[in-house]
Each structure stands twice: as structure tokens, then as C-alpha cells.
Amino acid sequence: WNLRGLLCTADAARRLGKTDEADELTKEAGLYRQAIDAAWKRTGLPHFPPSWEKVGTHWGDTETLWPTEIFARDDSRVVASIKHVRQDFGGGGPLARAALASWEVSGTLGDLAERLSPGLTAYVLTRHRFIDDRLRRALKGGVEQLVLLGAGYDSRAYRFAAELDGRPVFEVDYPATSRRKARILARRATMLPGSDVRRIEIDFEVDSLAARLRAAGFRAGRRTFFVWEGVSMYLTRAAVQDTLGAVHAMSAAGSELAMDFWYFLDAPDLLSTAYRMSANLLSLLGEPVAFGIHPEDVGAFLARLGYRVADLADAAELERRYLGDGRHVVPGSYLVHAIRTRSAPTPSRRGVGRRPGARRQA
Q: Which pLDDT tens digit goes with each residue over 286-324?
């Protein structure tokens, strides 16, 4: 979808008479196409791979099935991908949605991801570092439990095993993702440090987050560190408010939250235009960006829900703190570290929405 957005932006630049910029964008699109083709050849598959990382949920097929100028209708790889998805994965829609929420840029294809969305790799790495730093400080400060909302393949329970020192880690996610992760870890059990991991399988549409956590031994009213990354932008505003309200209700004052937000880049330059178009094209996969809030407004938004912003890092700040080699972080996303206050959330006028934590994924 990023390649498609880039090609559309190049076409717009050409129509506006900005030939030099159009040529530059077209050249960059050519590099993206070459990277995709090279990655496909390395798989040895007749179809586009289920995942470019060769692990995780299946999303790669679905994004390549749209007959655009990127891939022709009669491209043998497209034909084979359609057959692969229909026969083996029942259409791929829910699987595609699931992967978008848990996808991380890593491994040998980090360079490909960087070409497809400049600054994405750096953002993912600095996002992890920001949250890790806050978590490490919180564990030293005496938080009693860790909750990973939409845990996916998060490895903090093992990376922080020593610092956790027996404190429980509640990994909340959909059953399919949770069980697959459990199978992967079971095969590598002897390689992992001991950690009190409690997997919470939940259907966010029908289950109560608080009830499922309590059933797994979560101690309500205790200082807790919550991690919620890569999810909020795919939810409605009401769903985000509901989740944050539930977190506030089940935790003690002084509990901490680390999460990321997306916001709309409104600059008129071509780069911002390309990023805006890329976000819109996510709707082709059934995973549109649904919620955004500007960094200037997030403090008041969280305050109404009973949180105080302790730290905020946008792209420029993440670059300043963690990168010193000239790399750039993709704009439009930022990290927030917030503290739960004693005040109760301010009631808001909401329509009927999803249950807390709900995500558009299988």
C-alpha cells in the first residue's frame, strides 16, 4: 500500500508540473518494487509468502492481491496467491487484520520494511526502547505486576525476567495468537529464563477484560505497569476510552501506562501527503486507521480519563534520545508514558462501542 501511495503521489506531482519531485518519487518506487521482487525470489515460493518474515500471522498474501499497476491481474504470483489464500486460509481477511496489530519489523527484511515506509524500522526500535526504559524504572520503583494488552509476540516477560523477579506478567490477546505463541515458546523452553507468565485468552467482543484478568490472579488495586502498543490507532475513539477506563478502574493510583498514538500529518508537502495516503490505503486490508490525536491534545484527553502525562516522545524526540547515526523515525506516531491519578475518569458521551481492548483482528 505504501508503494501504491508513492506512485499516486508521483502522479499528482507530475500533474502539478513538479517534474523533478515526480521523477524522484518514481525512482524511489522503482527501488521499492525491486526490493519486493528480490524478497519474493528468496522465498522460493510460487506465490507471495504468507509472511515476509516467514513466521507469524498471514498477511503478506492479502496485500498483494489487489490488481493495481504494482501487480498485474495475470501475474503468476498473484494468481498463485489467490489460490493459496482461498484454499489454505479461508480468504485471509481476519488473518490479515490480525497481523497488522502484531506485525513488527525485524530480521533480514528490516531493509525492505524501511524502503516501504521510511523511518518505520527506526520507529519500531525506538518505541521498544522507550517502553523498556519506562518499564525498567517502574520495576525498580516497586510496581507489582505487568500487563501486556494485545501482547502478540512481545518478549518482555523473558527479556526482563531478572528485573521482574517473580512478579506476574499477564499477556492478554486473542486465543489464536496466544496459543501460537505458546507453541513457539514450548519448543524453546530450555532456552528461556524462568518467568511467571499468565496468558489471558480473550474475545474482546464478548469477554470482560477485568474479569478475565482477575481469574488469572490479577490483583486489582495494586500498582501495575500496562503496555499497549501498536493498537490504539486501529480502534474507535470510544474503544480507546473504554480500554483506558477499564485500566483505570482495575489499578491503583500510581500505576503506569506506556502506549503509542497516531495523528494526522497536516503539512502540505509531498512527503506528508504520501504518509497520509499510505494510512488511508490500509482500508484495503480492512484495517483502516480509525483514531488519531495530536500530541498537543493528548494530555487533556488522558487527563479526562484519569491519567497524567509524565513523558511524551514524538519522532524528533525519539531520534534525539536514541538515534545518533542519521536515521529518521517515521512521523505521525508518538509514545506516551502516563501515570494513573486518584481522580476518576470524567464521564463522556459515547455511542455503543466495543468492549475494552477490542481490536479489528481475528
A: 456 788 999 999 999 999 999 999 999 999 999 999 998
54: left (phi over 0), alpha (psi -120 to 50) or beta: left
Residue range 316-340: average pLDDT? 91
Q: Specify the pLDDT at position 91.
A: 43
For residue 21, pLDDT beyond 80:
yes
Would you tell me the crossing angle of helices 270-280 and 19-43 to the nearest 10 degrees? 40
CB 262 within 8 A of CB 291: yes
Buried b (16+ CB within 10 A) or exposed e, 137-170: ebbeeebebbbbbbbbbbebbbebbeebeebbbb
Give the H or E element holding residue 278. helix 270-280
138 Cβ contact partners less than 8 Å away, ≥ 6 residues apart: 225, 256
- For residue 319, the tally of other CB atoms under 10 A from its CB is 19
Angstrom distance (rounded) from CA 231 to CA 360: 9
